[in-house]
Amino acid sequence: MRGATSTRIIGIALALGAAATARAEVLTEMPRATDGRPDLSGVWQALNTAHWNLEPHVSEYPVLLELGAQFAVPPGHGVVEGGSIPYLPDALTERDRRFSNRLEEDPEVMCYLGGVPRSTYMPYPFQILQSPDDVIIYYQFATGVRRIFIDGEQEAPLDSWNGWSNARWDGDTLEVEVTGFNGLTWLDRAGNYASENATVTERYTPLGPNHMQYEATIDDPTVFSRPWTISMPLYRIVDEDFRVLEFKCEPYAEEKIYGHLRKPGTEPPEGATLR
Amino acid sequence: MRMAKVAILSAGWVLASVAAHAHHAFATEFDVERPVALEGKVTKVELINPHSWIHVEVIDEDGESTVWMIEGGSPNALVRRGITKASIPIGAELIVNGYQARDGSYKAVGRDILFSDGTALFFQGTQVPE
Amino acid sequence: MKFPIQHSQSLASAGVIAGALIATPFIAQAQSAADANPRTPWGAPDIAGVYAEYTTAPLQRSEEYGNREFLTDDEFAELERRRLRPLEINLETTTTPGTAADVHYNFDQFALSANEGFSSPNRRTSIVTMPSNGRIPPALPEAAERRESLQAYRRGREFDGPEYRSLTERCIMWSSTLPPILPGGYNSNLQIFQSPGHVMIQGEMGDPRVIPTDGRDLPDNLLPQWNGTSVGRWEGETLVVETTGFRPETAWRGASDQLHVTERFTRIDHDTLEYAFTVVDPETWAEPWGGVYPLTEMADGVLFEYACTEGNYGMANILSGARAGEREASGN
Question: Which of residues 42 through 61 in chain C touch B, CB cutoff 8 A?
Fold first, then answer.
């Protein structure tokens, strides 16, 4: 249901994009910030099936058959340059194991932070705020937030879900190097993954007023035989006064995570959000 | 990362405040009737939120090995003290005094955590014994 | 809607009132006008930074002070003497072994006691300045009833499942990161980030608030949010943020979903913002109340990721401990 709603919003956004009738200002190119760089500020969303599977895939049954067509896997062309992910043999086996156990292991099921690059193409909007020194990205899912240090050179003090992001401008492209991962995030719902040894290099390149190209190169010699790259457009949500609403998903995962520890013979309270 | 610009401080009222605002009441998780004193080698360090967990392998008198998980505090303030993930090397020997989990599993809150030479974990100037 | 804040809450005026030989706590040194009023490249007052919320004033005034807003010189000097005392690394337990209070990690060990020096001086006898006794007004009977009915529902079920535990234990909300922002026990730090037309405020343990400052008003049809919905505007050097539209479950200090919070952020020197807030909720308190305290900038400060539900082993241990206790009690 959430995915359907988001898609509808983007559909409206795209339909309005050319005419932008409600907006006083019609953008013809990506705005510029005070420092002359492209201003990537705004609400963005991917419009593809990468969150189901980065690789090309046909439609599939849902993870639980009783969910029916509503949660079946829709088909997609994939976003991996060259088509498939260059796993080392053992890592490919591990990917397949994770896929078969996805309902128990995919961190998205538990409302855990999406990590990088997965947060970018989860089926939810995210908001970029940009200043000359820093970029903030606020992801709707699990109310995740990420600080990107422009011209930063610090190393991650500790490992984390979203890693540690240092960026530089390469012409009109914002290039972000992300390290310091904890290795617990997945790349999609199909079990694709990288480890805590990964370096992810993201590139955000304006394509026009309401589009940018997103690329992420994943280098992890412990999992892959060579670095590989995903690439997809991101779409600006142009609805007037659009706000990224909270998606605090913690309550919805409690039965999943802690249900086996519930007092025998009791049920979750109605509403499940008591204080 | 620079350290605090204000001098390092200590005052009782802050302690009281901390106790009132802790993430959860540890006495609901650990059993005051089960104090433990453990010595062992670090096998894994999770400097995570809301609380850190340090895994320590303890060998008993019969040579049996048990890995205990020791709960500590949120690591965020440690980062500002200059602590990194390298500050507790795997294999370091620790002495832990604490209380075991109420469910009887091999988990404990680390009331005090020392390196085997008696220096305290996470303090500047702390030397890891060779 | 606007909710005025009393002028008497101004920290700057505190120094004038207090007079005194000791430098006033919030205006540390003379400085150039440019330094006092820095601007962003796009011309807005620059209040960006990472700030510590800790201050020596308690939230509510101790009754011994009555309506007295400020400490005497002697009282303040004694407080400062204690505040500036070097941290003594103390691994001796201050709690008694074998008591519930002793079942805890060592605060000093994890750099969580006194928060490594980020406490700001404060001559005030309380953060709360309105009403004049410095104390939060009593809850209205209907609010007390709301709270009691929730507590009655939980009573006897406290350990049945995660939903009966506190929002904090469940990694859902921290009262220290909501509007209004109040210093909590630890990790009470926040980042203010500015970009043209927006300000983001994020507590170290809490959700970010992305606040438009582009002239728009609060939406007419607010969808309830855990953190409410915020809109901001600049009044001279001050960022004014209005927040309302909370979910009823947020229930900050027992508030209803009618809670409306007004916050004012003003730079008063190179390292310090004045933070003032007013709380209005006619279904919870008969009168508005509010307060003021300084936010102290941490040089090159960085918030570290607080992924809470991701590592919340404690919740599982609490529930499994309760189950073990039940088995023991039933003799199985």
Answer: 54, 56, 58
